[in-house]
Amino acid sequence: MGHFSDILLMQAQSAIPIDLAFRIYRNARDRTLFQRVFHLTSLCLNAFIIKSALLRHNFKIINQNTLLDLVRDRPAFQPLITVSNHHCCLDDFLLTAGILPMSLILDVDKIRWTLAAVDICFINILYKTFFASGKGIPVWRRTRDLTTGHILNTGLGVDQPSIDFSLDLLNSGRWLHMFPQGRVVLPEEREREAEFRLRWGIGRLIAESKDPIILPVWHCNFDSLNPPTPPYFVNTVSRILGTPQCLTVTVGQPFQLGWLKNKLQRSLTGRTDSRQQLHAGLTAAVQNALYKLKIFAEAEHEKHKAHIKQR
């Protein structure tokens, strides 16, 4: 009864049904011509604006071709999951527009789908339209008060419709991007960021899709353009148009976890919590790879800053 009341509460708060992903897209594999044009127009317009804004700043991408090769040339029906840290609300826009060339963005079927928080990205008709047009998938996440630690929303867990929809996408060979930390990590939390546990949704996606390729990505200093302080819009515009910032994106090495999935399934046979432990084990492997990349990426960012100062 408690879980049902939580669902009703979240529906009332967001004023949208929990099957929104299916209502927007109907089917992951067969989008209408209108939906294709809808996505293409929005993605290209956003990419043009972001690329134009980034021209003022010192933007560096390390190992870019690894991602581009996977987006362009991976085998048919091979799922791709990219995961990255989450430091500001513009992370997805900056990553997509910053890393991908316009020629690839025009091929809208190859562009990533991404999970987006209902309580931020789908709160009204304008936001719903905007984020849906950018191939955003509404996800109901658990949220806490950062001061008290009290749970504000329980979320709908790993079995919510949005994760089902994401599995449909992956098993038809699509690219899904995730921010598995589950929220924006604030500047004052960065020293202990590597202690933050990733959400188990990534574990379920790996467990139930066709041995996806997983690619970690770590970005540095994006929040210098989109600081987490009000007034958000004014501060963001002033930063984008202000002093050029040093921005660094590091693409890691791709890996697959089919071997670990099989190992865990064998070792967990007969346990009542085998499914949860499978998700936890796969999530932990991704977490290890992402935070290992963090160390290298932050060192590269410091080199990038030093190089800019010497110019």
Structure description:
The chain is of the alpha/beta class and 311 residues long. The protein has a single domain, classed as 3-Layer(aba) Sandwich (Glycerol-3-phosphate (1)-acyltransferase), CATH 3.40.1130. It is 49% helix and 14% strand. It is built from 13 helices and 9 strands. A 7-stranded mixed β-sheet has the order 1-9-8-2-7-3-4, with helices on both faces. A two-stranded antiparallel sheet has the order 5-6. Strand 5 and strand 6 form a beta hairpin. Helix 9 packs across helix 10. The chain is globular and about 60 Å long. The N terminus is likely disordered.
Features:
single chain; 311 residues; seven-stranded mixed sheet; two-stranded antiparallel sheet; 49% helix; disordered N terminus
Unreliable runs, pLDDT <50, ≥5 residues? 1-16
Strand order of the largest sheet: 1-9-8-2-7-3-4
Strand residue content: 5-15%
Q: What is the approximate shape?
A: globular
* Number of individual domains: 1
Write down the overall mean pLDDT.
89
Secondary-structure arrangement, i.e. CATH architecture:
3-Layer(aba) Sandwich
Give a count of the beta strands, DSSP E runs of length 2 or more: 9
CATH top level label? Alpha Beta
Instruction: Output the number of helix runs.
Output: 13
Roughly how many Å is the radius of gyration?
A: 19 Å
Tell me the structural class: alpha/beta
Domain Phospholipid/glycerol acyltransferase: 80-222
Pfam family, one: Acyltransferase
GO molecular function, one term: 1-acylglycerophosphocholine O-acyltransferase activity
Main location: mitochondrion
